[in-house]
Write a structure and sequence with these properties.
The protein is mostly beta strands and about 190 residues long. It has 3 domains: about 60 residues, SH3 type barrels; about 60 residues, Nucleic acid-binding proteins (OB fold (Dihydrolipoamide Acetyltransferase, E2P), Beta Barrel); about 60 residues, Beta Barrel (OB fold (Dihydrolipoamide Acetyltransferase, E2P)), CATH 2.40.50. Helices cover about 0% and strands about 55% of the residues. The chain has no helices and 16 strands. The strands form 3 sheets. It has a 6-stranded antiparallel beta sheet with strand order 1-6-2-3-4-5, with no helix packed on it. Strands 9-8-7-10-11 form a 5-stranded antiparallel beta sheet, with no helix packed on it. It is flat and about 65 Å long.
Length: about 190
């Protein structure tokens, strides 16, 4: 058991019979009345983010979460298959547990969060940036842009579509931000 004094970003807790992680919190001590904690919580099953206010000193159940590195092997009709990097144990995860799963390529290492007591996988996170090859994009034409940040669609090697600047061509390697699916930079080969 913990209290609201133990809140920190990333803390995982059981609340209302579901698992939540704290995205953001703020201790508030108004001039009149008792102190409270305003939080933003992310549901680990659905990914939904809600706001909630806890009275100061309320007891919560903290859940132990373990993060383990897994290598992405392949995707089939059963889901996404991964191998633990140290024990070589293989698991299959539902693609819904992985945000932006169409940016994963074979051999890539991701972090899978497990509920430590029940050994059930909760979520999987891609690294912040991935390097992918561009397999298809239309050629950019000079002079047809009104702004300096003109973008065009490009298909990368995993099949995902990313908006890229006009100077990117087929065969280029690009770095993609997995958090918002945006183009970051061109990678030198």
């Amino acid at each position: 058991m913990a209290t609201t004094a133990d809140f920190r970003n990333g803390l995982c807790m059981e609340w209302n019979d579901q698992l939540w992680t704290i995205v953001q919190f703020l201790h508030v001590k108004p001039g009149k009345g008792p102190a409270f904690v305003r939080t933003k919580l992310r549901n680990l099953k659905t990914g939904r983010v809600i706001e909630n206010t806890f009275n100061s000193g309320v007891k919560i159940d903290v859940v132990r979460i373990e993060r383990r590195p897994y290598q992405f092997l392949y995707k089939d009709d059963m889901g996404c298959n991964f191998m633990h990097m140290e024990t070589f144990e293989q698991i299959s995860l539902n693609p819904d547990l992985i945000e932006n799963n169409d940016l994963m390529k074979e051999g890539q290492v991701i972090e899978v969060q497990f509920h430590a007591d029940t050994e059930t996988p909760l979520t999987a996170e891609l690294p912040p940036f991935v390097e992918l090859g561009v397999t298809y994009t239309v050629p950019g034409e000079k002079g047809n842009t009104a702004s300096t940040t003109a973008l065009k669609p490009a298909t990368v090697e995993t099949g995902a579509e990313i908006m890229v600047p006009l100077f990117i061509n087929e065969g280029d390697m690009i770095k993609v931000d997995t958090r918002d699916r945006s183009y970051s930079e061109r990678v030198k080969q």
